[in-house]
Amino acid sequence: MKKLINEPSAVVDEMLDGMVAAHPEVRRLDGTNVLVRSDAPVDGKVAVVSGGGSGHEPTHGGYIGEGMLDGAAAGEVFTSPTADQISEMIQAVDSGAGVLCVVKNYEGDVMNFDTAAEMAGMEGATVEQVVVNDDVAVEDSLYTSGRRGVAGTIFVHKCAGAKAAEGADLATVKQVAQKVIDNVGTMGMALTSCVTPEKGEPTFDLGDDEIELGIGIHGEPGTQRTDIMSADEITEHLAERVFDDLELEEGEEVVTMVNGMGGTPQSELYIVNRKLQSMLGDRGVETWDAWVGDYMTSLDMMGCSVTVLRVDDELKELLAAPAHTPALTVSD
Fold it and tell me: CA angle at residue 157 from 256 to 148, to 5 degrees?
């Protein structure tokens, strides 16, 4: 294992300190692995928070800021944050207007966010929750009951955060978040496994001439192992599954995301995007915006995921609304 770390057990702690040192608009709650906006709580505004295991950076802390998240709780690598830390986060960002928790569908995350909401509720906070389950590859996996939450979560953060920034109430912010969840699908693949700091070796074995289709973001194997294919063939496999899940029809508009898993060159992601946009055009579907980059990674895994979000005028307005975070900026 070759990594820019000190002790494996200190990775998350030192990463969070480094983020705060680089981004003064974000602060760390004392004694926790929680980051929040430096100006939190924001008077009169519904707070939007998220969290999960570390190793997916820039998710989740990278999306804290104006127009997106008010807080993010970081667990150890690929491990859910604890309920007590999530509860502290909720209370730290709560202005009295309520808090929406955006949770990826993993059993540990859902359980701990549920418990945290109850704990914060006993302290007077009003908490609502949505669960993101955009992964079309599997119905159940090592970590979930039902579909996994993956890169489509970033679109939920953006739209819910923008709606909250407008001054909408908690019910409306939750409704927008659920609207994104109902209209987004993702599928991913891996060229290589990832290597966790604690384990120090690949989480699954993959031959030099093999790829894994339908992977999650925690280093778990996918749904199908096959001989290596061209970029176009891989994109066709991923995109067709997403298109079919969404039942895309001619004349609809979408926003797409080609997301790197952490170890993939940007040039290769653009090659995938080239084919994805060609496929959408062949279906008569218009791409309103295309995102290409590392938005939700799996440490150093080489691979990508393809996300498609069906949009209407409301979602387009929210996606285009200003956002100022360490990992994503949308100009005024």
Answer: 70
* pLDDT at 14 exceeding the cut of 70: yes
Tokens representing residue 77 in the block: 């690598």
CA distances from 141 to 106, 107, 136, 172, 214 (A): 9, 10, 12, 32, 11
**222: pLDDT confidence band, cut at 50, 70 and 90?**
confident
pTM of the shown model = 0.97
For residue 244, how many other CB atoms are within 10 A of its CB?
11
Region class of 22: left (phi > 0), else alpha (psi between -120 and 50), else beta:
alpha
Tell me: pLDDT of 182 over 90.
yes
Record the tokens describing residue 170, joined without a space.
Answer: 């908690």
| Burial of 282 from C-beta contacts in 10 A (0-12 / 13-18 / 19+) | exposed
Cα distance between residue 191 and residue 210, in whole Å: 7
> Which residues are catalytically annotated?
56, 218
Checking if the pLDDT of 143 tops 80, the result is no
Among 65, 83, 70, 139, smallest CA distance to 330 is for 65
DSSP per residue, 77-135? ETSPPPHHHHHHHHHHH--SS-EEEEEES-HHHHHHHHHHHHHHHHTT--EEEEEE--B
Place of tokens 């609502």: 128
Check: CB of residue 34 under 8 Å from CB of residue 92: yes
Residues 6+ apart with CB under 8 A from 281: none
Return d(Cα 195, Cα 193) in angstroms, integer. Answer: 7
